[in-house]
Amino acid sequence: MSTTPTPSQTLDAVLFRALLDKATDAIYFKDTEGRFLRVSNRMVGAFDRDHPSQVEGCTAAEFYSEDHIREIKAAEEKIMKSGIPMLDVEEAETWPDGSITWASTSKFPLYDADGTLIGTFGISRDITEHKIAEEELQEANKRLIEEGRKSAVAEFAGTVLANMGGSIVEIRQGLDRALADLQQARGNPEALAKATEEVKELRYVAQTLSDLMRIQSA
Q: Does residue 88 fall inside a structural domain?
């Protein structure tokens, strides 16, 4: 039986090689043990290698952190067991040096011509810049909300203080009453209770004024 490839097979090989050489996404094929069978040049660069031969035959354990390796293994075992692909999942890729990159990943079960499961294959797109921009936007929104809240509170505090000119006088008058009541409270539980409540109310008013002045000056 001739082993010479047909024109169609030759074309398939050329197209497949062109895809792995030029694709801007990381493309990879693995056996059932997680060893890389074929990888795109993009993935070779992501692993800081110079040629696909330096990656093919290796497993993810030689490139990623232990935490990410466990995640990869669990996902691929689930795909091979269920036959259900994993589509457009955002993954945090953690590396041995502690750095983190982000990828949008799709993975599929890999079958041979007879329909026998022989591994998995996947496509990962680097979305690190997108995730960083997204996080920065979220932080900016939080800051805007917080600044808006502070501004509204400060405006309210200013309005309240502007209309509380008589409060200082009221506090002084209240203190005078409380002192007078305390002088009369000796041996009189009811008078003592009344004076105590007046002091509590004055303390509350004074604390409120202090808080409003602090907010306005912030």
A: yes
Domain range holding 190? 133-217
Last residue of a domain, one of 72, 98, 126: 126
Other C-beta atoms within 10 Å of 40: how many?
Answer: 23
Distance (Å, rounded) from C-alpha 63 to C-alpha 106?
19
Q: Rounded to whole angstroms, how far apart are CA atoms 155 and 177?
A: 33
Q: Are strands 117-126 and 100-111 parallel, antiparallel or unpaired?
A: antiparallel
Helix ranges (H only) for 65-188 are 66-82, 128-162, 165-184
**Do β-strands 100-111 and 86-94 pair in parallel, antiparallel, or remain unpaired?**
antiparallel
Cβ pair 41, 53 in contact under 8 A: no
pLDDT of residue 105: 96
8-27: pLDDT as tens digits: 778 888 999 999 999 999 99
CATH number at residue 70: 3.30.450.20
> In degrees to the nearest 10, what's the CA dihedral of 204, 208, 214, 217?
-150
- pTM for the predicted model, two decimal places: 0.62
HSE on the CB side for 1, CA within 13 Å?
3
Contact status, residue 26 vs residue 42, Cβ threshold 8 Å: yes
Give the pLDDT confidence score for residue 89 in this predicted structure.
Answer: 94
DSSP code of residue 123: E
Q: Among 201, 210, 213, 192, which Cα is nearest to 171's?
A: 201
Check: CB of residue 108 under 8 Å from CB of residue 88.
Answer: no
